[in-house]
Amino acid sequence: MSDLVTFRLTATGRVQGVGFRPFVCRTAKALGLTGWVKNWGGIVEIRASGEREAFFSLAKALKGAPYPIFVESIRADEVPYTAFDGFSAIESGGQAVEPLFPADIGICPTCRKELHDPKDRHYRYPFISCPACGPRYTIIRRLPYDREHTAMDDFPLCPDCEKEYKDEKDRRCHGETISCPACGPLLTADLKDGHPLSGEEAMEKAVYLVKEGNIIMVKSMGGFHLVCRGDLENAALRLRQLKHREGKPFALMVHSLEEAETLCQLTEEDRHLLTSPACPIVLCRPKKEPLPAVAEGVPRLGLFLPSNGFYDLLTEGVGAPLIVTSANLSKEPVLYGDGEARDWFEKHRVSGLFTNNRDILRPADDSVMKAEGSHVDMVRRTRGFLPEPVIRNGPEGQLLAMGTDMESSFCLTGGGRLYPGELPCDFLYGSSKEAFLHMEQDWEHMLGIHPEKILCDLHPMYESAFMAEEMAGNRGIPCISVQHHHAHALSVMAEHGLRGKAAAFVFDGTGCGTDYSIWGGEILLLEGMEWKRAGHLDAIPMIGGDLSMAQAWKSAFCSLLASGEKSDDPRFPVVENAVWQGMNCVNNSSMGRLFDSASAILHLKDENRYKGECAMALEKAAREALEEGRAPLPLHLTLAEQEGMLIWNRADLIHGLVAADGKIKEGALGFHRAIVEMVVKSAELLGVEQVILTGGCFHNSILWNETRNALEKKHFRVYGNEKVPCGDGGISLGQAWYGLQQG
Predict the structure, then answer these.
(1) For 12, what's the count of Cα atoms within 13 Å in the CB-facing half-sphere?
(2) Which end of the chain is more exposed for a tag (fewer CB within 10 A), N or C?
(3) Among 72, 89, 106, which residue terminates a domain?
(4) Are 270 and 203 in the same domain?
(5) CA atoms in the 13 A half-sphere facing the CB of 727
(6) pLDDT tier for residue 380 given thresholds of 50, 70 and 90
(7) Catalytic one of 14, 39, 358, 588
(8) Is 584 assigned a catalytic role?
(9) Catalytic pick among 21, 136, 147, 650
(10) Distances (CA, A) of 52 to 2, 4, 5, 57, 574
(11) Catalytic site residue 271?
(12) Are residues 609 and 464 in the same domain?
């Protein structure tokens, strides 16, 4: 017999609130080990005594624990032998040494089954959960993650739930969010026409109101939602008016994958994302055009499955896809406070407020993702991922990166981990800035991070830069500016741990260059933290300002003028005069504005009611050309090397678009192919092996896929963002990476 030994193990990762301790107990007992397991701050500590071989088997089993458990690392130290009586989970304790807060997790398949089982005591209980699902991030007060440190502390367990919680053989053992109708949160309904309701009566009323075409307000895991049927044009139009949301597509919640299949052509990757624990909105290719009030002129339709019991029951009862969107005005922060929500309900035309008595401690909107074969395009990284780090073994250092004013995000670093946090709102609104600062400061406290420096965008007029400078001044720490497109490229280098030389193609709508003109069609050469601008789309005089960027026809007229073309549009002389006089004009190399120009010239769309609308219309037309087997127009950008820099001139491309003669889809596809050609030729001329594709333009599926495929055929190694958005929502990660590498 082997000598008996005792080991102390510390496990990090997603190991709290996910059934890890019961798993440890069951595994250890099966291996004949004795000892205990407990939560300790943000980690789990294990003491195990027994044969040495059994101990090694335990460590191997823990590394392979089932989802949602994720063991990032295990440290093992042999300690003096101790004889224990059995193996058990003991009371938590200790301070957060390596804080790792778990993310919210959508309802698991087993809980969904129980929800619809008349024999189960959780039957039709909207707040059903277990260690494998339910709210985490949105209800945690502090670590260690035990019930008394969450908003569930207000709901003492009934005898039946208490028994499940303590029984190591029960699947709800140590499930910190578990409850039932006898002891858990209660669904209530306040109605504009009728008496208050609760429990099952409230659930049935919600189904009835939505089924009849009404709009209701719902308290979910991470905030309040507005809900209506997605197959009724009038309901969707009323919802748009209520939110002041012109044009921007809605996503649809469906009850099952089978229902999703009736609406969209799902790939295996789509199905995987839809059923993943994060329960994100997944952008899928529609089988037919959705209702215009839901989504008009877009290449993909957002679909998602219910993230909790309430929505599972609602989608089943209504029997139709639902629009479920945040209960706030467009571009404003998520509404999550009970008092604010009630005030909003009283002021607006919705039929009922369906709420509950569990507090939401911090907001979280739905994440948005898109599958491009094996590549995952993270469009918005929020619920289901926050506050988990995207990098776990990075450089040491505590700092704060403030991102940009659009797709606002920040990134905190500490202990070799990088924690990006995204708040989908616009800094044009004072409430957005307040919400952003509240979230950032909450994370500093939650993660125990005390920044020693702050990073921000180079743009001198960004609100995020003003806030960064003020915070740095108040704290007496440095504030460092990072060029916008360099930060984009660094976000990819951080994700993939890239070393050596790389060429980065950073294509987006705007960003302040080192010459303080507007950049956006950039070719950068990088090695470590060193970089240089190796090329770009030609910079032309373009009318500036937020309104002008929204008016794609202005971008088109500026592109026409720069290319020696005219237009008989009555608005053209006004723009022409402004450009010649230099009125509110700035040199602009933005690829985003070139996409807008192409959309307007081809008469697809000439206004961006929301970010990227014209570009999506162009992508949709190109997709239809591919599906219909149309030959692309032979469009090209022209290379002109100037002082060692690759300058891609748009004139020939614009001439070709003007001469398209009604071949809109062919022109749209030819436009995409011209950009692909620009990237491949540039990469060949630069002579690098690693190529980075990033910036908001690479949310475009055709641009991403065809560029990557063309580069890989030429044996380039191609990298893009997957863990954070390739748009401005990922910039804070790149800024943080820059700050850490500077020491």
Answers:
(1) 16
(2) N
(3) 89
(4) yes
(5) 23
(6) very high
(7) 39
(8) no
(9) 21
(10) 7, 7, 6, 9, 83
(11) no
(12) no
